[in-house]
Design brief:
Length: 181
């Protein structure tokens, strides 16, 4: 059974103070290097973009990418229903852009925007930000419940660079944001 929000989450070493140990473990987990992305989701005519940091390649053959999305998020619902997602990999200089996607972003189909940002679609129809330095378009092949989140594993079916391939990309440590632990 998950702990109540704000309550220490076990297990704990013998004799450890749960609150102190939980704070220590969270600080250590925050030290893990991580990227910062906008994951685009689609189900039918609904679209969303969400800031996401729990992203990793999980297989070379086939090319698979995993994104962990909190179960209560709109993006979770759209990926589960639509079975697709796209990752917009942002330039380090676009750090402020991710803040537009920390809550469900308004989709304006007539303007072709999400969160006020223009986007385009490739094979899956999941939104890819025009501002992205690079992008991946993925079809979900596995959905693995992992507690508070679901790990959606997607096969990369289209990818590209929108800018110079050498553009430095955004990482969590480039912002004052933190997530996890």
């Amino acid at each position: 059974m998950p702990a109540a929000r704000g309550e220490p989450i076990g297990p704990f070493p013998p004799g450890a103070d749960p609150a102190e140990y939980d704070r220590l473990r969270r600080r250590v987990l925050w030290k893990m290097p991580t990227g910062l992305y906008v994951v685009g989701s689609r189900a039918g005519e609904r679209r969303n973009g969400m800031t996401c940091s729990w992203v990793t390649q999980v297989s070379f053959d086939p090319k698979l990418v995993g994104v962990a999305v909190e179960a209560g998020a709109l993006t979770h619902q759209l990926i589960a229903d639509g079975a697709v997602f796209a990752l917009s990999i942002l330039a380090r200089s676009d750090a402020a852009l991710v803040r537009r996607f920390v809550k469900p972003a308004e989709h304006d189909p007539a303007a072709g925007t999400i969160g006020g940002q223009r986007y385009h679609e490739r094979a899956t129809g999941a939104p890819i930000l025009d501002a992205a330095a690079a992008w991946l378009d993925c079809r979900v092949v596995h959905a693995v419940p992992t507690g508070s989140h679901t790990l959606f594993v997607g096969e990369v079916i289209h990818a590209g660079f929108a800018a110079d391939e050498e553009t430095p990309v955004l990482r969590m440590e480039d912002t004052r944001m933190s997530y996890g632990g």
